[in-house]
Amino acid sequence: MEIVRSQRRPPAAARDVVSDLPLYRSAPSLEVRLEDFELYAIDRLRVLKGISDGLSRGKKPDEMETLVRSLWKTYMSHPHASEVINKDIISHFVLRLVYCRTEDLRKWFLSMETTLFRHRFRLLDSPEVQRTLMAEFDLPYKAVSNEELKSVKETLIQVARSIGLSSSGADMIFYKVPFEDVPELVASRRVFILKGYAYVAMHQVVSLVVTQFRSHLSKALVLTNRKWTSTIREREKDRLTPIVETLATSYLGPDYSQPREFAEISLKDIEQVARSSFPLCMRHLFEKLREDHHLKHGGRMQLGLFLKGVGLKLDDALAFWKAEFSHKVGAERFDKEYAYSIRHNYGKEGKRTDYTPYACQKIISSTPSVGDHHGCPFRHFSEENLRAALGKMGVGNRAMEDVVDKARNRHYQLACTLTFEAVHGSSCDAGINHPNQYFIDSQKILKQSSGSK
Questions:
Q1: What is the pTM for the complete model shown?
Q2: What gap in Å lies between CA 443 and CA 310, rounded to an integer?
Q3: For residues 159-166, average pLDDT
Q4: CA 433 to CA 302: how far, in whole Å?
Q5: Which of 266, 302, 362, 430 would give a disulfide with 374, using CB separation of 3.0 to 4.6 Å?
Q6: Are 428 and 399 contacting, i.e. CB atoms less than 8 angstroms apart?
Q7: 203 with 118: CB under 8 angstroms?
Q8: Chain centroid, CA 32 distance in Å
């Protein structure tokens, strides 16, 4: 897949696919504009992260199918219908580069892409297309002929009804599969077995196809990692490598670099809003600052940019940090060693860049060293410390168990979302994706509540 800056891609006729659901066996011979390289990947990433959130929230299979259909329609469409499949293929291979680089990234990408493939396969409206994809995987299974079907039809109708299928149309397409290939279906008595073969409904064959897809992608990710490490990363260090290394922690939501609605605080407000509306990561940093009168660079950046995003003006920020640090380093040393970095964060020094507050993905991916307090508490706290912190926030026992369970299973953003819901007694369907989003949503709820009294 060659990356170019301005040429258009070849026409859709050049597609190396058999249907609207590609198998991603090999990277296609397509020219990709550099801007599409990143934008297509971001759109697909929105789909995968939506799937991840749906799974974490325990959505049922039919709910997941509805979610996948909606996510795909929202993010993977294209103004030119002929380009839709190109966008699909390009975005997959870009994210394969992004997520091949560590074991944790590979596991997440493999799980989400497999889930996406499963539901897209099930949503195909043509059994013929499904059978074509089965053939592409060289699965050695053949549909039961009409003649053979007659001899076992009554039994298969009973099986179909018992597993919730109709007894006509595509639901009555069965495949003969060696019974040892489908142990789960055999164990759950969801197939008819005769002479060593299981008669598997088309609906159930999906699992066989998905297993093949997952196996292929798992091996491909390992090979991609080798190519990335040995050649691609260095060869593309000035062009693609920065994009690839940034995408895995990309924040895909609103910009919180400037104060927004319900987001403007002063020095006199900060103590109260820290207790009521700071997410756990920022509340922890605020408390450690008050306790130690100092934070290392990582903590200062994480908390400082958050405070900037919620509306703490530069003069107030300087006064706030100076009041805290002066206890330990003195006012003169603060002015010499720390004030510059605060002004820099506000775009008043150096390149005068308007720095953006850290999003959840960036915070989660950071690893604090000994003595540092930044990062995500749901990831880095011990279970005992997490329970104590949640208790201080007012999270009840039942909700606390749910939060701890999500953190234990590495669903850190969902753990934060459940914390928000428990503290505020209000649902957060969009999920928490940014500390400043947590603050704004909290302030909205609190002000609406106080206004209704």
A1: 0.67
A2: 11
A3: 70
A4: 15
A5: 302
A6: no
A7: no
A8: 24
